[in-house]
Amino acid sequence: MGFQDLKRLLQLVLIALIIGAGLLPAQDLDRTIEFQFGGRAIVVPRFGPRFEVLPVLELMGAEAGYSPAAGTFIVVWGERSIQFAIDHKMVLIDGTLQEARDAPAASPGGVAVSLTFLDRSLLSPMDHHLEPIPGGYRIVPGARFADPVTVRPAAADFGATTTLLLSLSRPAEVLVEETPAGAVVVRFEDASPQLDSTVPFRSRRVHSLTSRNQTIELALASGVGLLSWHVVEDPPRVIVELGIASPTPTPAPVQVVRRTGPRPIVIDPGHGGDDVGARSADGLMEKDLVLGIAHRLKRVLEARGHPVRLTREDDVHRALTDRTALANRLEARVFISLHANASTVASVSGAETYYMSLDQSSTDAEAAATADLENRAGAASGERSPLDLILWDLAQAEVLNESADLALALQGRLNALLGLRDRGVKQAPFVVLTGATMPAALVEVGFLSNPSQASLLAQPTRQQELAEAIADGVEDFVRR
Ligand SMILES: [Zn+2]
């Protein structure tokens, strides 16, 4: 047997072994793939979508091999240590677990990986990437080119947690994770984050943010960890909840209400105490008018079998955000804030229903003016900054369509009662509606600035009619 025959026989034996191991389709066996690194080249066997990877890593000068103790393959490159295992879509990079697009497979040389796995899960942590050449790839230094995405950070510190909002200039695939060292890292797939530092950033729990390659690292106050995270589309945002990750359950807040039975409807009579709201020429105050209507509305709804809670039972001040906080604690079915309007134009009349606008814009100038007026009560008592509001809005974002339906149902009944032209449903950034996690709407029952309407609103019969119309609207919505 000559040398060529021997070589041929060995090849056949190898092929038989590989087919016998059920590894790969036979048609791909004769294929190879070339890798170049720093002027050197290597040709490795290719098995379908995968190829032998250990020789490629050795070509780069990395130490790469199987660790029976760990049950993983370990690659050491400078300071960096990367571990991966056959049939696992995971890579452990310096102790941080990352999800891979696909899993490595067993091969004659030890382990075979896909080009994606090599590029994203092995080379990228080593600050290298693949560039195609005829018959193969060149391994070149530098992270893979990733389109920049501008990230505007904002944070709101609450009692025990901090909500970090990262507003993105475009949608991007994101993964938020905690390293064993306790650092929280936001990883971008195919995007290099550029932090927008034009907006001041401050938080008790997040000391700083640093962007590096395709990650943003958060420097957190001691003991603070990652609680949860999620992505909101349109506009694209990443919301990261941070707090003390305590192994023992945190004591329940004092005011936690254990809900039993059906979810209540929460009615919020606007203003109260020193904050009187709008006022008619003959002295009717918004805070008193809406409290009266709220008590009537409560009685009407309860008579129809709906549990109801008011955010204030009498003439007291309540912070705007405390009002939705109560509704959230009670897991309210619906949140309705009652107000009476004022307009610089005395002849303007009618009822108006609003729901939350998330982009701080309003349906029209009139809606903006109304929101501005209603929000002043909160601003005066040192309430949330606009940045905090962006965060707080997110609660409403998830139920915005339902809020629009609720507002439409309410306005429909109010139009029928008042026989007035349809003033329509409007969107405006009302502070009192932000933060509500359930469908929420704000009803302006009429204009106190219109003298004839103010005297009508003062009548108990009209207040009862308004209460019944709003109750009808709530039932229309709940029964949809
Ligand atoms: Zn008001």
List the helices and strands and how they pair.
Layout: H1 3-20, E1 32-37, E2 40-47, E3 50-52, H2 54-59, E4 63-67, E5 72-77, E6 80-84, E7 90-93, E8 96-99, E9 105-107, E10 110-114, H3 115-123, E11 128-133, E12 136-141, E13 147-157, E14 161-168, E15 173-178, E16 184-189, E17 191-195, E18 206-212, E19 215-220, E20 224-232, E21 237-244, E22 265-269, H4 286-303, E23 308-310, H5 320-329, E24 334-341, E25 352-356, H6 365-380, H7 386-397, H8 400-418, E26 425-428, E27 440-447, H9 451-457, H10 460-478
Parallel strand pairs: 1-12, 13-17, 22-23, 22-24, 24-27, 25-26
Antiparallel strand pairs: 1-2, 2-3, 3-10, 4-5, 5-6, 6-7, 7-8, 9-10, 11-12, 13-14, 14-21, 15-16, 16-19, 18-19, 20-21, 25-27
Helix pairs in contact: 4-10, 8-10
Bound molecules: zinc ion.
How does this model look, in words?
Helices cover 28% and strands 33% of the residues. By secondary structure, the chain is α+β, with helices and mostly antiparallel strands. The chain folds into three domains: 31-141, Copper amine oxidase-like, N-terminal domain (Copper Amine Oxidase, Chain A, domain 1), CATH 3.30.457.10; 147-244, Immunoglobulin-like (Sandwich), CATH 2.60.40; 265-478, 3-Layer(aba) Sandwich (Aminopeptidase), CATH 3.40.630. Strand 4 and strand 5 (72-77) form a beta hairpin. Helix 4 crosses helix 10 and helix 8 (400-418) runs antiparallel to helix 10. The longest helix has 19 residues, at 400-418. The radius of gyration is 32 Å and the shape is elongated. The model is unreliable at 13-29, 247-259 and 379-392 (pLDDT under 50). Zinc ion (ZN) is lined by residues 270-271, 277, 286, 339, 374.
